[in-house]
Write a sequence for this structure.
């Protein structure tokens, strides 16, 4: 038998006992080692996620890394791996143009099919990527949120010397500050919500951290909204220089709208962009960055709990105390 952290229906989460999985059709079996918990998992638990993107009951866990237990020649047992969460068909018009995040058939571990907060996961080898031994479990577990951020940045196409504002101070915001450095910005300012995040922000390469919107001024050429609150999106929309670009990554929850200053958007020649999930190529780029050692976001993991103590992990996410980056659950010690 194995454990599976299941949201049975909105409001009900439980560690179920299930039959062990059996590999078939050339698929691999992966033993998850660490699984991140994120705001989206809480949205799944609370039922506030867009119902088009989740099937209940569901085993959560879409940010994870593990070890191959039933392998293949390419991925022998014992290999440290990460597994792409979005399962794109590869065949539809979107997939053929590389926009696998918009595949006509939405299918994703932890959303439409069971995720990694359990003792064994079946994966098609096409989705599996080997990690070098020097990549820490913490960094490997951050592959998924890093791919979300990298895809958004690649889409907005930063130029050298950007004046960057990151709105938000959670993991996505901190990863955005870290990853945007790849494009040599002039400065990175973070408008956070909690002063306790200041040190994490500094380690992520933020030049100026503030929780006071009056201190961020305006005139940013690139703004990344990763806060997940309408008030933050409103600041983001009002902080751009003429010609500035604003990329929206923070979910405020289903059905919330921010006021759009239409005249400023037009007169400012602004570009507002949403970015959904990640493409297969963004995922591969993150794996390459991690394996090269040039990108090492593991310091963002501030909390670890066992899978059995999932309630503490979720509570830490709901109500942060002190510096809080990524919250991990250890599936196997
Ligand atoms: Zn997530
Ligand atoms: Zn497709």
């Amino acid at each position: 038998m194995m454990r599976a952290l299941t949201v049975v229906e909105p409001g009900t989460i439980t560690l179920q006992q299930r039959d062990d999985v059996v590999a078939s059709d050339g698929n691999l079996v992966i033993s998850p080692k660490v699984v991140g918990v994120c705001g989206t998992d809480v949205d799944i638990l609370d039922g506030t996620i867009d119902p088009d993107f989740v099937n209940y009951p569901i085993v959560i866990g879409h940010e994870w890394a593990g070890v191959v237990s039933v392998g293949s020649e390419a991925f022998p047992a014992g290999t440290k791996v990460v597994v792409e969460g979005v399962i794109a068909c590869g065949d539809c018009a979107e997939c053929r143009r590389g926009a696998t995040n918009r595949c006509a058939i939405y299918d994703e571990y932890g959303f439409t099919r069971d995720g990694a907060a359990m003792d064994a996961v079946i994966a098609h080898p096409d989705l599996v990527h080997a990690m070098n031994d020097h990549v820490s479990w913490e960094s490997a577990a951050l592959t998924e949120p890093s791919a979300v951020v990298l895809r958004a940045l690649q889409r907005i196409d930063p130029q050298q010397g950007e004046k960057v504002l990151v709105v938000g101070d959670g993991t996505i915001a901190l990863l955005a500050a870290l990853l945007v450095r790849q494009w040599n910005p002039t400065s990175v300012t973070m408008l956070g919500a909690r002063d306790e995040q200041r040190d994490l922000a500094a380690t992520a390469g933020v030049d100026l951290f503030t929780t006071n919107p009056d201190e961020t001024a305006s005139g940013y050429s690139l703004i990344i909204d990763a806060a997940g609150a309408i008030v933050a999106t409103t600041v983001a929309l009002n902080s751009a220089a003429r010609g500035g670009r604003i990329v929206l990554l923070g979910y405020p929850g289903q059905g919330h709208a921010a006021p759009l200053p239409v005249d400023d958007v037009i007169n400012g020649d602004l570009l507002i962009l949403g970015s959904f999930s990640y493409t297969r190529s963004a995922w591969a780029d993150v794996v390459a960055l991690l394996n090269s050692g040039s990108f090492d976001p593991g310091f963002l993991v501030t909390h670890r709990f066992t899978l059995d103590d999932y309630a503490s992990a979720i509570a830490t996410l709901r109500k942060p105390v002190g510096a809080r980056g990524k919250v991990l659950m250890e599936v196997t010690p």
